[in-house]
Amino acid sequence: MDETQIKQIIKRQPLHGTALLDPRCKILLLVCIGFVSYFLAGEVVSLALMLVYGLFIALGNGGKWAAKMIITYIVVAYLNALLRYVQVPVLSVIMSVFGVTVLKLIPIVMMGLWILRTTYMDDLMVALQRMRLPQAVTIPLVVMFRYIPTLRIEYRQIRSTMDIRGISDTVWKRVCHPLATIEYILIPLLMRCLKVTDELAASGTTRGLELECKRYALRPIRFAWPEIVVSLLGILFLVGLLFIDQTQIGKIILWRV
Amino acid sequence: MISFQNFSFRYEESKDFTLRGIDMTVRTGEFILLTGRSGCGKTTLIRSLNGLIPHFYPGEIKGDLLMDGHSLLEMKPSELAGQVGTVFQDPRSQFFMTDTTRELAFGCENLGLAREETIDRIARAAKELELVEYLNRSIFALSSGEKQQIAIGSVYALAPKVYIFDEPSANLDYAATKRLAEIMEKLKSAGYTIFVVEHRFYYLRDLIDRAFLIQNGKIEHEFTREQFCSLPEETRISYGLRTAYPERDAEHYQEKPHSQNTTHLLEVHDLGFAYKKGPEVFQNVSFEAHSGDVIGILGHNGAGKTTLLSILTGLLKQRHGEVRLDGKKLTPRQRRSLSYLVMQDTDYQLFASSVEEELSLGMQEDCKEKIDAVLNALELSDYRERHPASLSGGQKQRVTIGVAIVKDSLVIYFDEPTSGLDYDSMVRVSKLIEQLSDSGVIVFVVSHDFEFIVRTCTEVVQLDDDGTIQNQQLSPTVLKSLSEKYFT
Predict the structure, then answer these.
(1) Which of A166, B13, B170, B430 could covalently link to B362 via disulfide, CB atoms 3.0 to 4.6 Å apart?
(2) Where does the chain cross the membrane (chain A) (predicted)?
(3) Rounded distance between C-alpha atoms, residue B239 and residue B214, angstroms
(4) Which of A11, A147, A164 to mutate against chain B (most B CBs within 10 Å)?
(5) Which residues in chain B touch residue A113, judged by CB atoms under 8 angstroms apart?
(6) Which residue on chain B is closest to A215 by alpha carbon?
(7) Sign for the pseudo-dihedral over CA of B156, B161, B167, B172
(8) Domain boundaries, given as residue ranges, for chain B
(9) CATH number for the B2-245 domain, one of 3.10.129.10, 3.40.50.720, 3.90.79.10, 3.40.50.300?
């Protein structure tokens, strides 16, 4: 295979649509959703937020993920509604507060994980650099971004050891000693974390991570017209939701059992 | 040309000098092997070459280190990035990006190269090192060998003049090690200067120009390739070095007496497994193990060794077939309670705040006497109050073995127990396993380390890529066929 063919492979893009937006645009939307989601009280507007951003994600390699999260949202909303029929003092209040919090979190999780999955690391580094963030901020952020996907692998390894050793291996033990369980998971995780980040930093340093030159990602990163339009529309929509929430529509009860 | 001139180094946090009076001159294009016991200072030596010392690991320096007439000590590691490239030991923890193409581009992007230049360079790296099939893949879907190749590619794209490899084969199987040697040969013939730190150096025996034996921070000996590869056995062992010709062990193999202790019989019958929606990982796996057997599980990375271990230890449930102990069928839960797995990475396995507490963790009854006995047997008594994380790699491994003994495990599984170990530590692990087997434990060892397998195992189970399995008593003929498979 000659080099021109290889270059074509390198430039090939598995991502499309909204997934290719500048990471700054995605992060801006995530922050705005985070704020608005907590201020919305109405059930219709909250669902609208979920649906519209689900569609937004579906347009960028996130169709399945969006569907999964929307279904989760509806199920949790229904379960929450069911709570009205359960009258246990204190406990039902706690549960319903918990349920509402989860509902508020779902759109943020949906958007956040989608960004994690559809953003190339070098795009992110370039975007952060163009925002003039100092390296003391960008490098830890990038290391974190890289470390999150490995957490699950590490967690599984630790769990298997715990199962073999009989430490918190049954649901009963986990319920009776939740703090001990957390401790036994966290200690090896932290030890690994220390080791991996140290090695990662060494490997990055020898490849020039600390140089402050202007970086160029494998594809052009610009906050151009598509990003401006998407950001404006996205924010306008969210502001609109906040207004509608104040009207009669905000009082409609959607989830009845 | 690189020259160390009476070079000494002391880490900030330690009292003694790790390197003492190193004098070494390396010509451009030479292939240098640095070897010696664990902790002898070889890693420190290469850290000073790539600039991590003194910038990343501060400390006190005496003497000088010159590359082409300039002092390396005044350059920052990032300035050295385009000149000295380093490939580290653990392929899992040297990736910054989550996909292979961008990992290759990582160094070039740091240097601030223009987009087209970066793409040119990674295309060249992919072509020269034959990495095209790995482009645009997720890092998490690659095997250790593939990851290591991408790591080399990423360094190659930076076009350094000097390559440093820090125990590059520690996590690789035989096929991947062979591939690594091919890449190194290519780099050597392209005229690059290469430093390799390695314990298992058999695959480099045709490549090295000179080898340096380092002991206690000093260069103890310098060898040419001929001298180094033909060291008499006693001398080699007294230096704590591994063999350059592991396949010769096969010829001198003496069959180990089969243990007479047959208190327990573990039978694996017609075992099969497939992940959800995935193809069969293996099928029709059947074999038997008696108390005192040491069984080597061999096979390529990806042949299903880890999956087999997970099923035998009860972490996964088999698709079909069964595992029986003394004729009684075992559920995964029962398998978990009678077996123990010593992982390659012991960091996952240590939970408590002292060695003593670690051993008693998860035990129902009081077992103080037993713990004392185990600590003595494993030479860990002096460390009983220490935090497990503060121990050395070998000590941590012994603590995990201790846990298995305290737990009275009938079956103990070892996953790659000798990766990155020098000769002495390898022999020590082998002896420990022998003791376990004498006490009636069934031991399974997953390993790529031929020297260790020959020394330790009584039987081998070979997993092939097509999911079939061969179970054989270890004998000179079996070893011969194995060594042909591995080394030719």
Answers:
(1) A166
(2) 27-59, 65-83, 90-116, 136-155, 224-244
(3) 9
(4) A164
(5) none
(6) B112
(7) positive
(8) 2-245, 265-487
(9) 3.40.50.300
